[in-house]
Specification:
Low-confidence stretches: none
Radius of gyration: 28 Å
Bound molecules: histidyl-adenosine monophosphate
Mean pLDDT: 94
CATH class of the largest domain: Alpha Beta
Number of helices: 16
CATH topology of the largest domain: BirA Bifunctional Protein, domain 2
Distance between the termini: 44 Å
Structural class: alpha+beta
Oligomer: single chain
Shape: elongated
CATH superfamily of the largest domain: Bira Bifunctional Protein, Domain 2
CATH architecture of the largest domain: 2-Layer Sandwich
Largest sheet: 8 strands, mixed
Amino acid sequence: MKIQAIQGFKDILPGESVCWQHIERIARDVFHRFGFSEIRLPMMEETELFARSIGQATDIVEKEMYTFADKGITLRPEATASLLRAFIEHSLHLLQPVQKLYTIGPMFRHERPQKGRLRQFHQLDAEIIGAEEPEVDAELIAMADMIVAELGIRTSLEINSLGCPVCRPAFRQQLVAYLRRYTNELCPDCRRRTGSNPLRVLDCKNPNCRKLVADSPSILDFLCPDCGSHFEAVGRSLERLEVDFTVNRFMVRGLDYYTRTTFEFIAADLGAQSAVGAGGRYDGLIEQLGGPPLSGIGFALGMERLVLLMQQRITARFAPPVRLDVFVAALGREAAGHSQVLVHHLRRQGLKAAMDHGGRSLKAQLKQAGRFDARYALIIGDNELERKSAVLRNMTDQQQTPFPLNLDAAEESRRLALLIQPTD
Ligand code: HAM
């Protein structure tokens, strides 16, 4: 029986990983420019952590988690809860009043796989803990915007406010009253949600539900003065930073911990799974998880969706993962022995070097050098070894020059490194 990867779990092949590395490089670079530090977290946590943060009545906790029920542990469906657990456990707030942290890695949700939706997917996650000013919301959103822009991806940004425990209950009450008038017309999921999680009805994809909620009360009309002025200040600050956005009052998030600002980066080209990234503020959550009363805000960008959107993906797929500086083509036993030591020293000199150990013909080896996109080929046969002169071929213009050998591989490698200079 052929064993294959399980549904919703995907291999990232060598050609594709070039694109992933590029995304990670850009993201880390932007994170560091904004003063973020990396935190690496375990992939499993106590199930209770997710139930208490993401929310018992959310789709994620209700039906999408990979849980080992007998052990009470779960593969993380997102990074925020784990990051806050670590923040609290190690009292990181004592190190700095405002902590800016990021983490990159796989998350697990048992959803129905489709384009841009997997069961193991990867997030670039960033969180700012200990700052409640609206300017911080704007700065964080601007950072996500910068990552996406530097990857050459076009998105539109939508923002909303979900209020706070002071103002949201009144909205929720009005919304439930409104939805109850249309119970029979709502889809079965929304009928259930009206009781358990009514805000989720607002972003139901069912066309009929969408039509029904078009005239529902707006959360923005219910914001308390503090939440209202916070939301306005976020908008003003985004304008100052020249980040375009639209307000979408129907945007609610699939996680219960949000307060005030929420946002999503949408890419039209993605089809149904159109959110490239999303996040929001979660004041109160850290305290709720047993930590100090600090506010927080963060986002996560979905890496699979970024990869899908990157134009470079087409070429990256077939590009060699590393471009070699030099391929040593050895012909004959003696030459192969010397070449192995030479290649080792070339790598010590910082050059990307390789050779073939299969005793193949010169033609076959040069073909291999071409497949690696090598800049140079160094041809060493037993005859060349005897004459103490190899042939250095520039693979771009096919020019050949003699390269003197003295059978001291370390010295030869230093000379060759000076001649062809390592690439990054
Ligand atoms: P989320 O909206 O659940 O938020 O996920 C963020 C992003 O992860 C999505 O916009 C999407 O790009 C990607 N994503 C989610 N599920 C999948 C999937 N099944 N397959 C592929 N990509 C997926 C969170 O996870 C929050 N923790 C974000 C956050 C951080 N809020 C505050 N801090």
